[in-house]
Amino acid sequence: MRKAITGHKAVAEAMRQIEPDVVAVYPITPQSEIAEYYADYVHNGIVHTELVPVESEHSALSACVGAAAAGGRVMTATSSQGLALMVEVLYIAAGLRLPVVMALANRSLSAPINIHGDHSDAYLARDSGAVQIFAESAQEAYDYTLMAQRIAEDMRVRLPVIVNLDGFTLTHTVQPVDLLDDEPVKKFVGKFQPVSPLLDVDHPVTWGAFAMPDYYFELKRAQQAGMEAVPAVFLEVQREFSQVSGRRYQGFFEAYKLVDAEYALVVLGSTAGTAKVAVDELRAQGMKVGLLKPWLWRPFPAQAVAEAVAHVKAVAVLDRAFSFGTLGALFEDVAAALYPLERRPILANYIYGLGGRDITVPDLIKVFEELPRLTQNEWALRYIGLRE
Amino acid sequence: MKEIRWHGRGGQGAKTVSQILAQINLREGKYVQAFPEFGPERSGAPMRAYNRISEEEILVHSGVYEPNVVVVIDETLLDSERPTEGLKPDGVLVVNTTCSVEEIRARTKFAGVIIPVDADRIAQETGTGFPNIPLLGAVVAALGTDYNLAEAELREALGGRLGKDMLEKNLQAFRAGYEAAKKGVGVGRA
Description:
The complex is a heterodimer of chains A (388) and B (190). Chain A has 388 residues and is α/β, with parallel strands linked by helices. Chain A contains 13 helices and 15 strands. Chain A has helices at 7-18, 33-43, 57-70, 80-95, 120-124, 138-153, 182-189, 216-228, 230-245, 271-284, 302-309, 329-338, 361-370; strands at residues 2-5, 22-25, 50-53, 74-79, 101-106, 131-134, 161-166, 175-178, 253-256, 263-266, 289-294, 296-298, 314-319, 346-351, 382-383. In chain A, 52% of the residues are buried. Chain B has helices spanning 14-27, 77-80, 101-108, 119-126, 132-143, 147-159, 164-184, and strands at 2-9, 31-36, 46-54, 69-72, 92-96, 113-117.
């Protein structure tokens, strides 16, 4: 059924259909409306989830870790500073191989206090061991919340998964979302399979054990193996979801008019939608431009990205957060992916949209128009929409 | 694609009606967006809300800068907020006011269609207390949306939030706004 709803509501609807055993959330700012909607579902008896309102985001994810180790299917949602406070525990969820799925309403980090959209929070969790997926629209946020559950819980993976959706531009904007019926979703998501649950008292196990230099390295290597299993699982889950939903998800990224493009953008999240309009406008004028929008950011599908943009003359990689002291994180991913190629596109890195600074079609057209003028790699950061 | 900008004050229901309008347009089979100006919400402070309506999927996620329709829910914002800024010359300006078309035109220098609606009076007479619903009716008229379809969606959207008595009053206010604007559509051009 098609409904006009916000990104927050779309994610809450996905959670309602998944109906996890436990949702632990900090019910105060910077929490999102996702927690509010879900609390309604719980208290109206629509879902039979144990909702645990806690005193901080650190506690929220700690409660998720405990509940997941106990053997439950667990979800949460957060944003901005909330994620920052969760990060310590996010590393633990990943290290313990707990499939916690969380929506992240992408918003800036303080200081200065801001609350508006950018990707600083997602970048903060970049190396946490959580799988990270970015949505372009509320529809994608809904769809990937459902798919995330399967990816997180796959026995080859067993890792936390973050579904990123841009703060305000997606979370607070009413837009059409095609919701699936409850039954096919429940069938797609399937029954949760706990691994060595704490509540199985007949088979007592230890969770969160000590690992000294003699074992720590091997355990972290095993965690990396879980991450390395993600791409294959991601494609399998997309294939199955496409059959269930009738919507086409194929690949680690969406390549928009990229096949014959001479110039390309790489950009995460909702800005990819705005960039498609820029691509169409320039194509109408005869400029061969295209777009690569990663759905899967961690693990980064380096080889596939390299193959997709190898033929392009120049690529602009857009980062919606600083990685202070170096180039943008997405830029570095793309640059590293391209390094093994014999013939590489020229690269430029643009920082944009910090703290909710709007990014428009003309802004992105300007970036495309700058690319043909580059004769070599641009190692200095460039900025879109910045007053200097 | 049509773009709409609502100018109101926090608490006047601009966000609510922009969202209901999106539901109405969706019911018509259109693609839609509705979003408030992002930021801390303060009661009484000037705020904006936006709609996009299109026959095709809406991909753009930036702000709205050159709307086709501007709605001013609070007349005092006519001077302080420059609501006609960026409004397309062939666009429509809907104002909650007791002033005439000529008076609004003199104040705004806007040359396109001006639709004055005394939404405060409608809100008072119907007992709803809020000018947003009559103005929603006016916008539905300005967009040429089917009245019955819009009313059915409004009934559904408000049905969950309001009691039966207040729902009927709001539907009355909606109709009054629609009819007031219907008279003005197409006659306000300079």
